[in-house]
Amino acid sequence: MEIIAGSIIIRDNKILMVKEAKKQCYSKWAFPAGHLEKNETIFEGAKRETLEETGCKVELKKVLPILMKNDDNKNVMIFNFLADILEDGDEYHTSEILETKWLDIEEIKKMKEDEFRSYSVVKNVLKSIEDNNFNELEIIENAYDI
Q: Which of 5, 34, 59, 84 has its CB 3.0 to 4.6 Å from that of 45, i.e. a possible disulfide?
């Protein structure tokens, strides 16, 4: 089982997205996200991945419905968090990211499926935004705190 954590950052009806530079998904759009590191919480992972991919420091506000998918014969759980920017990244690029860009939600809806790393993830996130389907962060409890 793999766990992916990332951020959905919305400003002026636009979402901050990244264009991938990795070979297997080269030039595909995605939300800033990635795999958890050892001993990292989902919250820490989402913040770290967002910083690494966009240069933005974020505060997590809400959690979207958790997505499950089978990717290359392995189960993947995807945790996306609605987030606010605390510090902006300004035209940030890395070896894994070709471009960061604010894309209009209506523009995203008109894009072709093959323009995204995972169209099913994008489609589910857009539906959650449209339906205002977010949960409080407390829905995810840290077992160490119990």
A: 5
